[in-house]
Write a structure and sequence with these properties.
Sufe protein. Chain: A, about 25% strand, about 40% helix, alpha+beta
Amino acid sequence: MKISIIPESVCAKEIQIEVEDNIVKDVTFIGGCPGNALGLVSLVKGMEVSSVIEKLEGILCRQRDTSCPDQLAKALTEHVLNA
């Protein structure tokens, strides 16, 4: 299943996520910090959705109430709730 979200309060303009059999197959960040996004993607590929949520939920960026990793966790949480 492919998921696309418009994240809130972060530099990335869109996050595209591919989930198959409860495993994160791919993530693409449109905009934002390319190096950080690529690093994050390489870490979460192949992980179970629940593990990604557990590791990334609540991470903050600067003075914001969220971050790109947190927005990814929120998107995956929404995916789980709607599945």
